[in-house]
Amino acid sequence: MNSNHKHITCANCLSRKSSLFSTFSDSQVEDLNHHKSCAFYAKNQPVFLEDNLPRGVFCLNSGKVKVFKRGSEGKEQIIHIAVAGEILGYKAMFSGDLYKVSATTLEESNICFISKEDFLNMLDSNTTLRNNILKELSIELGERAVSITNMAQKSVRERLAFALLMLDSIYKEEAINLSREDLANFVGTATENLIRLLKELKEEGCIEIHVRKIEVLDKEKLLRISGK
Predict the structure, then answer these.
(1) 1 has pLDDT over 50
(2) Confidence of residue 191 (pLDDT cuts 50, 70, 90)
(3) How would you class 128 by CB atoms within 10 Å of its CB: exposed for 0-12, middle for 13-18, buried for 19 or more?
(4) Domain count, the chain
(5) How far is it, in rounded angstroms, from Cα 215 to Cα 228?
(6) What pLDDT is stored for residue 203 in this prediction?
(7) Are 100 and 92 in contact, with CB atoms under 8 Å apart?
(8) Residues 113 and 183 occupy one common structural domain
(9) I need a surface site. Which of 33, 52, 186, 220 has the fewest CB within 10 A?
(10) 2 in a domain, yes or no?
(11) Does residue 100 share a domain with residue 27?
């Protein structure tokens, strides 16, 4: 086991309180802890890859992970940025298909793993988990509809403002810490265009740039620019 890995039981995991396992009983938490293994992931380390066979689900204990799809020319389109408490990889198991997307860490992360067999057995016996997953899928479907609308109907400048607000809520008290390439792939534009638009937003007092990191200064103005 990597020396950087922090062994945390499911009972003591703060991230579990905002996960699909948040409403588990004590006995269910104990069973969950028995069937999971945990590991440390370095920054930019793959969690799973598109077109690979699903082996199980990944529970993000700490850190951040980008979920993305590669286009025909190999360019990434970042679909989602997962934070502590999120479960990754379970949808592919339901469909029985290969992974449709890839997932890679954006920073050092602790990630727990539950095998496909163990997770499906939990689903069979645990109505709480099934209900939580149905709720999560419903929420995600609504968010995906909003995301598609934003991509289709908003300008790149509007999408960038919207993305910065989303990322500000993800990073909370921290400055947004994404490479310019990743941010461009999240917004859906060329890196050169992104850099130009970031400079404009800085000059307008919406953001401050600290080398790679971005600090949001004026949320209301970004909200107006985003067209919300």
Answers:
(1) no
(2) very high
(3) middle
(4) 2
(5) 20
(6) 97
(7) yes
(8) no
(9) 220
(10) no
(11) yes
Phi, psi of 6, deg, nearest 5 = -105, 115
Q: Give the structural domain span for 192.
A: 154-226
Say if 146 falls within a structural domain.
yes
CA proximity to 170, closest of 104, 91, 98, 84: 84
Q: What is the pTM of this model?
A: 0.87
Backbone angles phi, psi at 159, to 5 degrees: -65, -40
What are the phi and psi torsion angles at 158 (to 5°)? -65, -40
pLDDT, tens digit, 9 for 90 and up, residues 5-26: 567 899 999 898 888 888 888 9
Last residue of a domain, one of 85, 119, 150: 150
Could you tell me if 110 and 31 lie in one domain?
yes
Q: Does residue 163 share a domain with residue 127?
A: no
Shared domain check, 131 and 25: yes
Same-domain check for residues 126 and 176: no
Cα separation of the two ends of the chain: 46
- Cα separation, 164 vs 145, in Å, equals 19
- What pLDDT, on a 0 to 100 scale, did the predictor assign at position 137? 83
Closest CA to 183 of 81, 85, 105, 94: 81
Q: How many CB atoms neighbour CB 187 within 10 A?
A: 25
Token pair recorded at residue 59: 């529970």
Please, which residues bridge with residue 77 across strands?
A: 69
Residue 13 contacts residue 61 (beta carbons within 8 Å): yes
Same domain, 141 and 176: no
Domain-embedded: residue 94: yes
φ, ψ (nearest 5 deg) of residue 83:
-125, 175
Bigger pLDDT: 150 vs 111: 111
The answer to whether residues 34 and 110 belong to one domain is yes
Residue 1, in any domain of the structure = no
